[in-house]
Design brief:
The complex is a heterodimer of chains A (540) and B (30). Chain A is an all-alpha fold. Helix content of chain A is 72%, strand content 0%. In chain A, α3 packs antiparallel against α13, α3 packs across α18 and α6 packs antiparallel against α15. Chain B has 1 helix and no strands. Chain B is rod-shaped, with a radius of gyration of 13 Å. The chains are: A mainly alpha (540), B mainly alpha (30).
Chain lengths: 540, 30
C-alpha cells in the first residue's frame, strides 16, 4: 500500500544511514562529561549505593518515558515534513503556543554549545598535554597547587579570562570550532552519524582501559593500607539509607537522570524527525538510554571516585565535577608512574570524544530549523548557525574570568529551560496529542512494545514528577541565581545575549509560519497525516 | 566496602549492562 506524504518545506538530503547509526548518535549526544564527572560525585554525596534507588526510579518514571515521547514526536513531525523542535511541537501541540515554546528546543542546544565548546577545548588541550609529556606534575613540589594552576591557566577562570592567560586554549578553541563545523557541514549521515559510529566505540575502549588500570591499582601506598581499590569502590557504593529520607536526594537523582539522558534538550526530536514511519523508535530510544547508563554507572561509577580515593583518600574524592576531573585526577595520574601520562591522555581524550559527540548534536537541530524556517540551503544554514554559536562562544571565552558567563548559561538555559521544555513536551504528547494516539504512533515499526503501565506513567506520573522537581529546584536555586544575575554585568550581558538569540529564533519561527502556510503544510497539526489513518487499527 | 555496598554495586551494574546487552542483541539480531 502506498503511503502518501506531505512534501517537506525545503528538500533535505539529511537522512540516517543505519538504525545503529541514529542510536549511536543519540547516545553520543547523551554521553557527556556529566556521565564521568557529575554522576559519581552526586551519588557519593547522596547516599552512595542507596542513591541508585531514586536514580533508577527517575530513570524509569522520567527519563525513559519522556525519551520515548520525544522519539515519537520527532518521527511524527518528520512525517509531516518538519525537522525542528518549534515546527514539530507546533504539530504535536496543535498551535502557535506550543510552536513558540518549542523555540526553547533550539535555544538550549545553541546556547549550551557556546560554553560547551570551550570545555571541549579544555579536554583536548589536556589530552594533547598528556600525549606530549604530561602537565609537569611529576616535577612539581606541590602537585595539588600545580594541578590547580594548570587548570586556571587553561580555563582562565582565575584571572581576567582565558584570552589573557599564557596557555593555548584559544588555539584549541578555534580548532574545536572548525572541527564541529566541518562535521556538521558534512551532513547528518556522513558527518554526525559517521563520527559517532567511530567515536562511541573508541570512547568505550578508552573507558575500559582506564577502568582496568584503576581496578588493578590495589594498594599503591603500603603505609596507607586503608587507601585501596575496594575501599575506593566502597566510598562510592556503600549505601547510606538515611539519605533516602531527604528530599534533596530524590531531587538530585531526578536532576542527574534528566540532564544525563539529554531529554528536554531539543536534540532527540530533531534526530528522530529523520526516521521513517516504519522505523522503530521504542527499542531505539531504550537502547540509547541504556548505552548512556552503561557509560554513566558502568564506567563513571567505577573510575572517577575510586581513582581519587585510592591516592588521595576521602578528601581528594570530594569537590565539584570540574575540580574532580581537571584538578584531582591529574594528581592521581601523576601517582601512576610510567603509565600515568598514557592513562591521562586516554582519560582526557575520552572526555573530548564525549564532549564532541554532544556538541555536534547541539548545532544540528538549529541548522535544520534555519533550513526549513527561512529556506536557506544546507551550506548557508550551517554558516549562519556556526556564526551565531561561535560568536556566543567567543563571548563566553572573552568573559571566562570567574566563569560567570558559563555559569549563567549553564543554569538558566542548560538547567532551568530543560525542565520547561521537557514539561511542554510530555504535556503536549500525553494531553494534547493524546496518550493513546501517541503510544499507538510509537508502536508503528516498533521492535518492542511499551509496557502498558507507561501509559499511566507518561500521562500522570512524569508530568507530576517533573512539576515537583521543578518547583523544588526553583525554591532551592532560583533566588541565589537571580541575585547573581542582577549583581554582575557579565551575567546580565550573557542573559541579554540569550534573550537576543531567543528573539532571533522567534523571528525565524514567524518567517517559517508564513512560508509553511504558503506551502500548504499542516503546521498546526489540525489534520492527521494521510498515513496516520493506519494507526487506528492496531498497536493500541 | 560493606556487603550492602557490594550488593548495590553489583545489582546496579548488572541492571545497566543487562539492559544494554539485551537492547543491542535485539537491535543487531534484526
Amino acid at each position: 500500500m502506498s503511503e502518501p506524504r506531505e512534501p517537506p518545506p525545503v528538500p533535505t538530503t539529511d537522512a540516517w544511514g543505519t538504525r545503529l547509526g541514529v542510536i549511536l548518535a543519540v547516545s553520543g549526544s547523551a554521553v557527556g562529561l556529566g556521565n564521568f564527572l557529575r554522576f559519581p560525585g552526586t551519588a557519593a554525596e547522596n547516599g552512595g549505593g542507596a542513591f541508585m534507588i531514586p536514580y533508577f526510579a527517575a530513570l524509569l518514571l522520567l527519563g525513559i518515558p519522556i525519551g520515548w515521547a520525544e522519539w515519537t514526536m520527532g518521527r511524527y513531525g518528520g512525517r509531516k515534513g518538519f525537522h525542528s523542535c518549534p515546527a514539530v511541537m507546533g504539530v504535536v501541540g496543535r498551535g502557535r503556543v506550543a510552536r513558540y515554546l518549542g523555540v526553547i528546543g533550539l535555544l538550549i542546544p545553541v546556547c549550551v554549545y557556546m560554553y560547551y565548546g570551550l570545555i571541549e577545548a579544555w579536554t583536548l588541550q589536556y589530552a594533547w598535554a598528556y600525549a606530549t609529556g604530561g602537565i609537569g606534575l611529576d616535577q612539581a613540589a606541590d602537585q595539588v597547587a600545580h594541578a590547580n594552576d594548570f587548570f586556571d591557566t587553561v580555563s582562565g577562570e582565575r584571572g581576567d579570562g582565558v584570552l589573557y592567560e599564557s596557555g593555548n586554549t584559544f588555539v584549541f578553541w578555534i580548532f574545536v570550532m572548525v572541527l564541529n563545523t566541518w562535521f556538521v557541514a558534512r551532513g547528518l549521515s556522513k558527518g554526525i552519524e559517521k563520527f559517532c559510529s567511530y567515536a562511541m566505540p573508541a570512547m568505550a575502549v578508552c573507558a575500559v582501559i582506564v577502568l582496568v588500570r584503576v581496578l588493578t591499582l590495589g594498594t599503591p601506598d603500603p603505609s596507607k593500607p586503608e587507601l585501596n581499590v575496594v575501599n575506593g569502590l566502597g566510598y562510592m557504593w556503600n549505601p547510606d539509607f538515611g539519605a533516602l529520607a531527604r528530599a534533596d536526594t530524590w531531587l538530585a537523582a531526578a536532576g542527574q537522570i534528566f540532564f544525563s539522558l539529554s531529554v528536554g534538550f531539543g536534540v532527540i526530536v530533531n534526530y528522530a524527525s529523520y526516521l521513517r514511519k516504519k522505523d522503530d523508535v521504542v527499542l531505539s530510544g531504550l537502547t540509547a538510554s541504556a548505552t548512556n547508563e552503561v557509560f554513566e554507572v558502568g564506567f563513571g561509577g567505577l573510575i572517577t571516585l575510586t581513582a581519587a580515593f585510592v591516592f588521595l583518600g576521602a578528601s581528594g574524592a570530594t569537590g565539584g565535577a570540574f575540580a574532580l576531573g581537571f584538578k584531582t585526577l591529574p594528581v592521581v595520574f601523576a601517582h601512576m608512574g610510567a603509565l600515568g601520562n598514557l592513562i591521562g591522555a586516554l582519560w582526557f581524550f575520552m572526555l573530548f570524544l564525549a564532549a564532541i559527540t554532544s556538541s555536534l548534536s547541539m548545532l544540528q537541530p538549529v541548522k535544520s530549523f534555519v533550513q526549513e524556517a527561512v529556506g536557506l540551503s544546507h551550506r548557508q544554514a550551517v554558516a549562519l548557525v556556526v556564526v551565531i554559536a561561535s560568536l556566543g562562544s567567543l563571548w563566553v571565552l572573552w568573559a571566562s574570568g570567574g566563569g560567570v558567563a558559563r555559569h549563567t548559561i549553564d543554569f538558566w538555559v542548560g538547567t532551568a529551560f530543560i525542565f520547561v521544555l521537557a514539561a511542554v513536551q510530555i504535556v503536549c504528547f500525553a494531553w494534547v496529542f493524546g496518550i493513546d494516539r501517541g503510544l499507538a504512533d510509537a508502536h508503528h515499526g516498533a521492535k518492542m512494545r511499551i509496557p502498558r503501565v507507561f501509559r499511566f506513567v507518561m500521562k500522570y506520573v512524569a508530568p507530576a514528577y517533573l512539576l515537583v522537581v521543578f518547583v523544588a529546584f526553583c525554591v532551592q536555586s532560583l533566588g541565589k541565581h537571580l541575585d547573581a544575575l542582577l549583581s554582575s554585568s557579565i551575567a546580565a550581558t550573557t542573559m541579554g545575549l540569550v534573550l537576543f538569540v531567543m528573539l532571533l529564533l522567534c523571528g525565524m519561527v514567524r518567517i517559517g509560519e508564513i512560508r509553511w502556510r504558503a506551502q500548504g503544510l499542516d503546521l498546526d497539526g489540525t489534520r492527521p497525516p494521510d498515513d496516520d489513518l493506519e494507526i487506528d487499527g492496531d498497536a493500541r | 566496602m560493606t556487603t550492602a555496598g557490594w550488593i548495590f554495586m553489583i545489582v546496579s551494574l548488572a541492571f545497566v549492562w543487562g539492559l544494554a546487552i539485551w537492547c543491542f542483541r535485539r537491535i543487531l539480531s534484526d
